[in-house]
Design goal:
The complex is a heterodimer.
Chain A: H1 7-12, H2 14-22, H3 38-45, H4 49-58, E1 66-68, H5 70-78, E2 87-91, H6 102-115, E3 120-124, H7 128-139, E4 143-151, H8 159-170, E5 174-179, H9 184-195, E6 198-199, H10 205-226, E7 232-236, H11 241-252, E8 259-265, H12 288-296, E9 316-320, H13 322-336, H14 346-355, E10 363-366, H15 378-387, E11 391-395, E12 405-409, E13 418-419, H16 422-436, H17 444-453, H18 458-467
Chain B: H1 2-12, E1 15-16, E2 21-29, H2 40-43, E3 47-55, E4 59-60, E5 64-68, E6 74-82, H3 100-111
Classes of the chains: A alpha/beta, B alpha+beta.
């Protein structure tokens, strides 16, 4: 008899479907309703750094060049106070097989799926991750389905996402193109059940351990070339996996003083699940619409416990505007000879402002670039914005209003960052952990977990819990 | 010349044969079946889906047909495109970006 595929019936079966599709029992890591053994999960369910390096070397992933941006560093020094302006380096992740760091994430999941004998893999993503999964699946001769949120109700799609559909199809994947809405998850569950495919989730321990090599490699490269550790590693932040994996790799390389700084494009005021707002943004990832909710409540994904936990690792979280990222994308092509996709340059825009804080002898690493192409290109994206009623102009980026305008800086000196209040986000995460898990009494183990998960200490967590009126 | 002929061919093709690469469309959830946990504007419209694959039967645009997807699933939907092409481009010239390179090269030169 055919299974009931109504929304409610499928969501009812979600735990069973997810568990089959990951081959991973999360129960063994559960400590309480709030706490779980995160490091135990990463250690026992994921792969060691050495294993990941081997898996990725075989798949042609990683070992990307670390490039010094000499002209951009010059421009930073021209717009800094005397003696300031750190050297900016960029990890050219566009050199991976499908053109982004997401190959690192996909390679481990696909290796694992193959090892466990799954007939294929599925990923729900409108980002570069889809192409990465499709590319890695093609290498391993596995079936592949990518579920994407592509269109608004007028059947109009972001050129950047249309390009990602094309790229997945180029690798032989089936691409399921949906209109806006969180029910993408429901569609993915039906497909996982129907096909018996592996859920190549962005948020499994496999995916996150795949990114650790990025942090590890960049520290090795900086040390061997410059004989020191970078002061800052700037990471484009969306769902949290890039921050988490990179930071873990940086720590595994022993660079304990290096600060991990997340950067997102400011899309405040736009609702990510809104049909009207969907095409009012030019960035489909690396923005606050993912960055904030995924940090303040990571366990909202397609796995029971998210391995991407950005607040565990973030030292700072900053935002830049869409116009600044387009400006920097143009600058990277024009004065560094590197034509790369805009979304990956979010962290570069932030790094320019951050490098001004540091003396000249310090190093700031931008840990990714991504490929560019038709659709994933400033011209295509600005044109699309204009068609959707967005005003595009040169001006002061401070005039930026997401969904209304895109202000391209008039001058390099205008590139700046806005600091997000991490303590406020930590507080919001702690509140979510208590409320969403419907916890009445918080134990000492919970407090310890929440302190680790927010990179704070017990006193901080206790003071917030008291504020919230929670029984301790 | 070739491009023009190709586009003429695809625009006049209203029927597909078995084995043609096509696109189908179907409604996944009607508006009333959607989750309540979404913004009002999204709640008012259905969740729609488009998938490409090889036609397993003949069909005309607007008719129900079944396709075999690259993942070897058989899916039924309304035939929307035959030999679907990608139409996204690098976009027209963006005036707002056009002088940035010159400005920065000038600054680099003067700074040195």
């Amino acid at each position: 008899m055919a299974r009931d595929t109504s929304y409610d019936a499928v969501m009812e079966r979600r735990a069973e479907i997810m568990s089959k599709a990951l081959g991973l029992d999360y129960d063994e890591f559960v400590i309480s309703d709030i706490a779980f053994d995160y490091e135990g999960m990463m250690e026992r369910a994921g792969y060691s750094l050495e294993e990941v390096r081997k898996i990725q070397a075989e798949a042609g992933v990683g070992n990307t060049p670390l490039l010094e941006l000499r002209n951009i560093t010059d421009l930073v020094r021209q717009t800094s106070k005397k003696g300031y302006g750190a050297r900016i380096l960029v990890k050219d992740e566009a050199a991976n097989p499908s053109g982004s760091f997401k190959d690192r994430r996909a390679s481990v999941s696909i290796y694992h799926a193959k090892k466990l004998g799954y007939p294929g893999v599925l990923a729900a993503t409108s980002g570069n991750y889809g192409a990465a999964v499709a590319s890695q699946a093609a290498m391993k001769n596995l079936g592949c389905i990518i579920v994407q949120e592509v269109f608004d109700s007028r059947h109009v799609g972001q050129p950047e996402i249309i390009e990602k559909s094309r790229k997945c199809e180029a690798y032989g994947a089936e691409v399921v193109q949906l209109t806006v809405g969180p029910e993408l998850f429901y569609v993915s569950l039906i497909l996982l059940e129907e096909t018996g495919y592996f859920n190549a989730s962005l948020y499994s321990p496999f995916g996150i351990s795949g990114v650790e090599t990025l942090g590890y490699e960049l520290i090795e490269q900086v040390r061997s070339k410059y004989g020191k550790d970078p002061a800052y590693v700037v990471v484009t932040h969306a769902g949290g996996g890039n921050v988490t994996g990179t930071a873990r790799g940086v720590l595994k390389a022993g660079a304990k003083a290096t600060k991990i700084i997340g950067a997102s494009v400011d899309l405040s005021g736009l609702h990510m699940a809104s049909d009207n707002d969907f095409n009012k943004k030019s960035f489909t990832t690396g923005h606050t619409g993912f960055g904030v909710p995924f940090a303040t409540w990571p366990d909202r994904t397609d796995v029971p416990k998210n391995a991407a936990r950005p607040l565990r690792y973030l030292d700072r979280y900053v935002t830049v505007t869409q116009g600044e990222v387009f400006y920097v994308t143009e600058a990277l092509a024009q004065v560094e000879g590197l034509e790369r996709g805009p979304a990956g340059n979010t962290s570069l825009a932030a790094a320019i402002a951050l490098a001004r804080e540091l003396p000249e002898d310090e190093i700031v690493v931008v840990q990714e670039t991504e490929y560019t192409g038709a659709g994933k290109h400033p011209w295509a994206q600005l044109d699309f914005a204009k068609q959707n009623g967005i005003i595009v102009k040169r001006g002061d980026p401070k005039e930026n209003v997401p969904g209304k305008n895109i202000v391209i800086p008039e001058d390099f000196s205008q590139i700046s960052i806005t600091e997000m209040d991490l303590n406020r986000m930590r507080r919001s995460y702690i509140r979510n952990a208590v409320e969403r898990n419907k916890v009445e009494i918080v134990t000492e183990k919970d407090i310890q977990f929440l302190a680790e998960d927010t990179k704070t200490h017990a006193e901080f967590v206790i003071s917030i819990l008291r504020d919230l009126g929670v029984n301790l | 010349m070739c491009t023009q002929i190709y586009s003429e061919v695809i625009s006049v093709t209203k029927e597909c044969k078995e084995g043609d690469w096509v696109e189908i469309h179907y409604i996944v959830l009607e508006a009333r079946e959607r989750t309540g946990d979404i913004p009002e504007d999204t709640q008012k419209v259905p969740l729609e889906c488009w998938i490409k694959g090889w036609a397993v039967e003949e069909g005309s645009l607007g008719e129900k047909i079944t396709i075999k997807t690259p993942a070897h699933r058989h899916v039924e939907g309304t035939l929307t495109r035959i030999n679907p092409e990608y139409t996204h481009t690098f976009g027209p010239y963006a005036r707002e970006l056009s002088t940035i390179g010159e400005e920065l090269r000038k600054a680099l030169k003067e700074g040195n």
